[in-house]
Design a protein that fits this description.
The complex is a heterodimer of chains A (218) and B (255).
Chain A (H helix, E strand, L loop, with lengths): L1 E12 L2 E13 L5 E5 L5 H9 L6 E6 L3 E5 L11 H11 L4 H12 L14 H13 L5 E5 L7 H14 L4 E5 L3 H7 L2 E6 L2 E5 L2 H13 L1
Parallel strand pairs in A: 3-7, 3-8, 5-6, 6-7
Antiparallel strand pairs in A: 1-2, 1-4, 8-9
Helix pairs in contact in A: 2-3, 3-4
Chain B lengths: L3 H21 L7 H20 L10 H28 L11 H30 L8 H28 L3 H9 L2 H4 L11 H7 L3 H14 L9 H22 L5
Helix pairs in contact in B: 1-4, 2-3, 2-4, 3-4, 3-5, 3-9, 4-5, 5-9, 5-10, 9-10
The chains are: A alpha/beta (218), B mainly alpha (255).
Chain lengths: 218, 255
């Protein structure tokens, strides 16, 4: 379970202050798959980075007693000069995984073939995304944080990702950001809506989606 | 759950290995360049100065005298400069929740310090072999001086990183402040060559104390007129406190 206690987060850029969270107290319960809804720029990705612990709040506390992934669908931590294999080994070492087993898994899942031994600055964006997904799926987390999975790869690879998620969901949970209602409905059973610095939790997915649609029309 | 310290040690280890690949990953010799490059450029300096017939300010080998100064100085300046930008240049890595700003600093510190340790060992071996220079009289003193200078570099680098975050112009300012240090750190001379009122001013520079400490260890009869180990260590501790406390205050707040 992930618990927010009076968490406040703002951004200040060139004198403009933007509040992402006004003192949020909330629980993301264990056993629930949560979809995060909100406008573009509402701060969904920042919320996800706070959940991951990749960013600190201005004040308040975030407690996690489960093993949470980094926000997936993002390859920003990869080094362009390093090969696919070396980048995979780096993440494996960091998370204390067996490096060779993990490289094998990623080679198999990402279907990058010989490109795995090339520097990833030679990869296309689709290839990088495959590598990033392969790497994150190789580690067993209790909770996977997914930021816009729909942007990844071609139809066949998407299908493969979906199957992988479904098998992961048997033992783990996900918290996901998606602009696609279809994806949210497929994987999530509750929703939360980030709107003007407030986060509202909805037990019913349908209710959350309805409110989100209403907000977007305003 | 495993201990925080084991996790952090693992993360730092992974970062050190990663850095060896990213720095020179696309070249034939890989990380060996990190050792060869500064070693060769120092060798060129030594050859130029020896060719124009400069006699050493102390001892019989100019190469040895120059190396004791310049390598100690470079250990500091490399650390202070690279650590300043270590966080910005690896910002993407902070998306991994396990990676903290301090890990980026420490992993880079470990790698640069080990690299310079290798450079120093290789370099002095060559000088002893070619120039018939003497062996270090008290190698343990040389090692302590090197460690103290590296900690000074870590403190200065961490402080620089904080200042750069608060004030992006700091990189330019630091360049202006650091450049004269090359001439103020006793690389070409011994402080006792100067009148005492100038020595008093030079003595404010903690790097000079590091160089003097290293030379006392190497030569045995060097008898520095300025060396104060407590002064160097105090400077290092203050910079470390400022740097790492500042890092705690300002971590992950500006993007």
């Amino acid at each position: 379970m992930i618990e927010f206690q009076n968490v406040r987060k703002t951004y200040r850029l060139k004198g403009v202050t933007k509040t992402i969270l006004h003192g949020l107290t909330a629980k993301f319960p264990k056993g629930k798959n949560v979809g995060i809804l909100g406008h573009n720029g509402a701060g969904k990705s920042t919320l996800m980075r706070l959940i991951a612990g990749a960013e600190l709040p201005d004040s308040g506390r975030i407690k996690r007693n489960v093993k949470v992934s980094w926000p997936l669908g993002f390859g920003g931590g990869f080094a362009g000069k390093m090969t696919g294999i070396e980048n995979t080994r780096f993440v494996a070492r960091m998370y204390g995984q067996d490096t060779e087993r993990m490289v094998e898994f990623v080679e198999d899942f990402s279907e990058l073939g010989p490109s795995m031994s090339l520097p990833i600055q030679t990869y296309s964006s689709g290839m990088k995304a495959r590598l990033a997904f392969g790497v994150s799926m190789a580690i067993d987390f209790d909770c996977y944080l997914i930021d816009e999975i729909t942007a990844v790869g071609d139809a066949r690879f998407k299908q493969k990702c979906n199957e992988m998620f479904e098998s992961k969901l048997k033992h783990s949970n996900i918290i996901m950001i998606s602009h696609s209602e279809g994806t949210i409905k497929k994987f999530c059973d509750t929703a939360c809506l980030l709107h003007e610095g407030r986060l509202k939790m909805y037990d019913s997915l349908a209710e959350g989606l309805a409110q989100h649609r209403k907000n977007q029309l305003k | 759950m495993e201990g925080v310290i084991t996790t952090q040690a693992r993360v730092i280890g992974a970062l050190v290995l990663r850095e060896t690949r990213t720095a020179f990953g696309d070249t034939q010799l890989g990380y060996l360049w990190a050792i060869v490059n500064p070693a060769l450029s120092t060798l060129v300096l030594v050859m130029i100065f020896s060719a124009i017939g400069r006699s050493p300010a102390f001892g019989t080998s100019f190469a040895l005298f120059f190396a004791t100064g310049v390598l100690t100085f470079q250990t500091y300046s490399r650390l202070s400069g690279s650590l300043m930008t270590a966080i910005n240049s690896s910002r993407g890595l902070l998306s991994y929740p396990l990676v903290h700003e301090a890990d980026l600093l420490i992993s880079k510190y470990i790698l640069i310090t080990l690299t310079y340790l290798m450079i120093i060992i290789v370099f002095f071996t060559l000088i002893i072999w070619w120039d018939n220079a003497a062996l270090p009289v008290r190698p343990e003193e040389c090692a302590s001086a090197f460690l103290a200078v590296s900690l000074l570099g870590l403190g200065a680098g961490a402080t620089n990183a904080v200042l750069l975050r608060l004030w992006p112009t700091w990189k330019q300012i630091d360049g202006i402040i650091s450049r004269p240090l090359f001439f103020l750190s006793g690389i070409f001379y011994v402080p006792s060559d100067f009148p005492s009122h100038i020595v008093k001013i030079l003595a404010w520079n903690p790097i000079l104390h590091g160089v003097e400490w290293f030379r006392e260890g190497y030569y045995g009869n060097y008898d520095s007129v300025v060396l104060s180990k407590p002064y160097l260590l105090t400077c290092a501790i203050i910079l470390l406190l400022v740097g790492f406390y500042g890092e705690r205050l300002y971590r992950k707040k500006s993007h």
